[in-house]
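Quick start: what a row looks like.
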Amino acid sequence: MAQGVKVREGYELWRPNREKAESKTTKAIVAFVLIVSAVLLIVVTLGGWERLQSPGVGAMTIAWAILYVIFALLVLRWNRGILPVAAALAIIMVIFAAVSAGGWFERAKDGLNSPALPEELLGLLTIIVIPVQILLIAVAAVAFSQAWNVEEERPIGGPRHDIDDRDDEGSGADWADSSPRTSPAS
């Protein structure tokens, strides 16, 4: 239960939107895309570490990947507040990837020292980061719109109805005493 929310005696808080199949699927997709993004960033960074412009760029990219892993764990715990942050970071990463992808292909010439992975592969992986980040932006926006934070009161052990089962007036017998609440902590 969220802190600061008082529930009437004999009632409990439940989150109907978290029980929907589409919310569970979206949560899994967001976490998966965050993990894929982190793996791509780590592979490109470690594979091209010797040729990065500075060690600071590599350290920043590794930190970015670690943030994505942390965000994935938070999303798996139904933390909706991290979704706009993940989308904002994905927008910035799209810009970085678009600017840097060509540089890997330009390095694929005779006479230049090669990094640990071939330059063409690093360029391709950097290009792949772009659609993955765009996908992350889209699924994070969809997940945010699903209102995972909505809480409602129901009698303890009461039936679990889908939120869409309520009639428009909210006068159903099972719903007569329930009122939607949002939790600032989720």
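That is the whole record. The chain has a mean pLDDT of 81. Residues 21-47 form the longest helix (27 residues).
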